């Protein structure tokens, strides 16, 4: 957050307080239905608030704060959940399955999106959410690549839709195929979108620990993928998109468009072209890998990351045009293709290597 904003805390309070109230509701839903992440609930609440005209201009400073600096803090803390030694301890076969399935899905999905006529930003976010780790990956890529809020919402809808379907489809398919518990664990972690969904399947089938560890291997790939796109792509400002969306709903003129300049390498929140929050994610993963971080700290950091991510997603949701989102049938189809890719490639790898 810029220094002038730090001097304007009263201006932040309305938006922050509304975000806190929505966060409480999202956490309550998540507690009742653990397979539904608080982040997904929060973005729905944000879109609902915007749709009913409740996102007023006076809320904007606080909403901008939770949709950018808070999001970046959440991604940094997420790095502490990733233990590289534990992931490598699963064996090279599992690592190969995760890397190939993630890489193929991330590379092929935007190509399929172009064939379907899906906007490039939406294709990128669907690819990221399905290939890596659902809502957290979508939010991180959205912030770094400068995609539209509606595109992020459409990608989140895809993750929820197909991830929820996986809660039934993966165990049934594994039983039909006669997969061993270790094969089921690797396939679940390598193919299912959200960590919460992986945990739900793992708990129901007795493979919780291994499945979640495999999933965190995919989370680790978030950093290089975001860094790659950030280094080669454009960097629009989410705060500007959010401000313009609210201005349009209020009947006010949006600020004149400004062409975003690429940040100089090593300056303006970037290190050698890589966003600082992505570098922070890598540092936290390396710190966790030393084995010096107490389990209690890791648990608290994980809870804090989930809370901050949910707050950020509420801020993002308030900039969504629901009517535009409902016209995104091709994006849903693309999500099905991406889900089939990550599921099919990872299953083939499991059958061949695990």
Q: Would you give an account of this structure?
A:
Helix content is 76%, strand content 1%. The protein is mostly helical and 354 residues long. A two-stranded antiparallel ribbon has the order 1-2. The longest helix is centred in the middle third of the chain and has 29 residues, at 149-177. The termini are far apart. It comes from Nonomuraea harbinensis. Belongs to the UPF0324 family. Pfam families: Cons_hypoth698 (PF03601).
Any low-confidence stretches, pLDDT <50, length ≥5? 234-268
Find the structural class using helix and strand composition.
Answer: mainly alpha
Number of domains: 1
Strand order of the largest sheet: 1-2
Helicity, as a percent range: over 70%
Average the pLDDT over all residues and give the rounded result. Answer: 82
Approximate shape: globular
Percent of residues in β-strands: under 5%
The CA-CA distance between the termini, in Å, is 46 Å
**Alpha plus pi helix count:** 19
Radius of gyration: 19 Å
* Number of DSSP-assigned strands: 2
SSE run: HHHHHHHHHHHHHHHEEHHHH
């Amino acid at each position: 957050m810029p220094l002038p904003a730090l001097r304007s805390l009263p201006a932040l309070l309305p938006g922050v307080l509304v975000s806190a109230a929505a966060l409480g509701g999202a956490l309550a839903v998540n507690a009742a239905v653990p397979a539904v992440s608080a982040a997904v609930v929060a973005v729905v609440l944000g879109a609902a608030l915007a749709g009913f005209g409740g996102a007023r201009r006076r809320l904007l400073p606080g909403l901008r704060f939770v949709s950018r600096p808070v999001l970046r803090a959440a991604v940094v803390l997420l790095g502490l959940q990733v233990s590289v030694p534990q992931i490598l301890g699963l064996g090279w076969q599992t690592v190969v399955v995760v890397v190939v399935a993630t890489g193929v899905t991330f590379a092929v999905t935007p190509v399929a999106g172009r064939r379907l006529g899906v906007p490039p930003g939406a294709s990128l976010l669907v690819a990221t959410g399905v290939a890596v780790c659902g809502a957290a990956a979508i939010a991180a890529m959205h912030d770094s690549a400068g995609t539209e809020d509606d595109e992020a919402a459409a990608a989140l809808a895809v993750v929820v839709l197909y991830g929820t379907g996986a809660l039934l489809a993966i165990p049934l398919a594994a039983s039909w195929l006669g997969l061993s518990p270790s094969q089921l664990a690797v396939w679940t972690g390598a193919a299912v979108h959200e960590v919460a969904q992986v945990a739900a399947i793992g708990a129901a089938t007795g493979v919780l620990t291994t499945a979640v560890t495999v999933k965190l291997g995919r989370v680790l790939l978030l950093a290089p993928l975001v860094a790659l796109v950030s280094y080669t792509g454009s960097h629009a400002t989410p705060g500007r998109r959010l401000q313009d969306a609210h201005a349009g709903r209020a009947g006010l003129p949006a600020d004149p468009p400004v062409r975003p300049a690429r940040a100089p390498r090593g300056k303006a929140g970037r290190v050698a072209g890589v966003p600082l929050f992505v570098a922070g994610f890598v540092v936290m993963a390396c710190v966790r890998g030393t084995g010096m971080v107490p389990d209690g700290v890791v648990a608290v950091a994980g809870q804090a990351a989930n809370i901050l991510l949910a707050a950020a997603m509420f801020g993002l949701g308030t900039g969504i045009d629901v009517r535009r989102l409902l016209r995104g049938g091709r994006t849903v189809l693309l999500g099905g293709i991406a889900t089939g890719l990550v599921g099919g490639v990872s299953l083939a790898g499991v059958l061949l290597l695990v």
